[in-house]
């Protein structure tokens, strides 16, 4: 017998098993409810009886609020859809008074909004093109023409929406029209420097993420990094959060902190801060697109 060396990895699965694995439909279940005995058993039994295989399971039992949050990724028969699963699961959900959703693995469609600072947009494009963002960028909208070339070089439509006090309402309606036109699941404010109206915040509730520079202490207004330098900060950070009508106070998804010292001038602090912003925002977008973020009143549960 002659043995032939090969660089290809050896699979332990037979051809029928490989075919079955490739054809399996993939889903994610997320749910929240009051903590009670039997919830996890009900979920796993429901999936087992329908021939599904659990690939990932995470849960958080919040003892202070007496609630349970759960995320389960599973795969199985092609005959199922999220709508069919929700219908068949409804009896269990009613019994435990669950707030729940089934999702397939279709990638979220992401609309990005940007102004003059392009570091977050550039990072999102890089991760999207590398396949690590978790969602698909579909369009870039901006109140400036600054980053048209960056967007179009990545093959993304760029829509210029100028904003003035007199045209703010029309501009926001144009944004909502874009969300519908491109069937966007998520709106990302990648350093978009316009305050959204309360009506727009409510229209995008739970599907808009903002990035905000955050320091200890926090600096508001113009030239925050110069303010930080003047106060001798030792930490530079950024916060990614859901957009709400309460300005920069929406449920927090992710925060990034980088240590600095007295040798960092305003320009260096700004560069470090931009790194923190890009990291926090990309993680928040990825986790949202993968259904890893569960809203819990004014906070979030994030299954990384």
Key phrases:
304 residues; alpha/beta; seven-stranded mixed sheet; 9 helices; 34% helix; disordered N terminus
Account of the 3D structure:
- With 304 residues, this protein is an alpha/beta fold.
- It is built from 9 helices and 13 strands.
- A 7-stranded mixed β-sheet has the order 7-6-5-8-9-10-11, with helices on both faces. Strands 2-3-1-4 form a 4-stranded antiparallel β-sheet, with helices on one face.
- The chain is globular and about 60 Å long.
- The chain starts with 14 loop residues before the first helix and ends with a strand.
- The model is unreliable at 1-19 (pLDDT under 50).
Set out the fold topology.
Blueprint: H1 15-23, E1 25-34, H2 39-49, E2 53-62, E3 67-76, H3 82-96, E4 99-104, E5 108-114, H4 119-129, E6 135-142, H5 148-153, E7 158-160, H6 168-181, E8 186-189, H7 198-203, E9 208-215, H8 224-231, E10 235-242, E11 252-259, H9 266-289, E12 293-296, E13 299-302
Parallel strand pairs: 5-6, 5-8, 6-7, 8-9
Antiparallel strand pairs: 1-3, 1-4, 2-3, 9-10, 10-11, 12-13
Helix pairs in contact: 4-9, 8-9
Helix content percent band: 25-40%
Question: If helices are DSSP runs of H or I spanning 4 or more residues, what is the number of helices?
Answer: 9
Strand order of the largest sheet: 7-6-5-8-9-10-11
Average pLDDT works out at 91
* Low-pLDDT runs: 1-19
Q: Gap between N and C termini, in Å? A: 49 Å
Largest sheet: 7 strands, mixed
Structural class: alpha/beta
Number of strands: 13
Tell me the β content.
25-35%
Overall 3D shape: globular
Order of helices and strands: HEHEEHEEHEHEHEHEHEEHEE
Radius of gyration over all CA atoms, rounded: 23 Å
């Amino acid at each position: 017998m002659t043995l032939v060396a090969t660089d290809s990895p050896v699979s332990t699965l037979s051809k029928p098993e490989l075919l079955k694995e490739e054809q399996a439909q993939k889903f994610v279940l997320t749910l929240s409810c009051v903590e009670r005995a039997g919830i996890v058993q009900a979920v796993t039994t429901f999936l087992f009886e329908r021939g599904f295989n659990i690939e990932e399971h995470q849960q958080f039992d919040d003892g202070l609020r007496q609630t349970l949050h759960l995320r389960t990724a599973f795969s199985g028969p092609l005959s199922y859809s999220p709508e069919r699963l929700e219908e068949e699961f409804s009896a269990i959900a009613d019994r435990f008074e669950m707030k729940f959703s089934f999702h397939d693995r279709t990638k979220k469609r992401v609309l990005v909004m940007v102004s003059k600072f392009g570091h977050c947009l550039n990072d999102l494009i890089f991760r999207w093109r590398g396949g690590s963002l978790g969602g698909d960028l579909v369009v870039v909208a901006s109140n400036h023409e600054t980053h048209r070339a960056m967007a179009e070089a990545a093959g993304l439509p760029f829509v210029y929406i100028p904003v003035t006090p007199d045209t703010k309402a029309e501009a926001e309606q144009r944004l909502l029209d874009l969300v519908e036109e491109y069937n966007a699941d998520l709106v990302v404010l990648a350093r978009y420097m316009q305050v959204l109206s309360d009506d727009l915040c409510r229209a995008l509730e739970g599907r808009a993420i903002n990035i905000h520079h955050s320091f200890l202490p926090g600096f508001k207004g113009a030239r925050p990094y110069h303010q930080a330098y003047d106060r001798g900060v030792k930490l530079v950070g950024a916060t990614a959060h859901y957009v709400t009508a309460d300005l920069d106070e929406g449920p927090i998804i992710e925060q990034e902190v980088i240590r600095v010292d007295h040798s960092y001038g305003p320009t260096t602090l700004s560069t470090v801060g931009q790194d923190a912003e890009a990291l926090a925002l990309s993680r928040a977008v990825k986790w949202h697109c993968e259904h890893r973020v569960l809203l819990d009143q004014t906070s979030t549960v994030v299954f990384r």
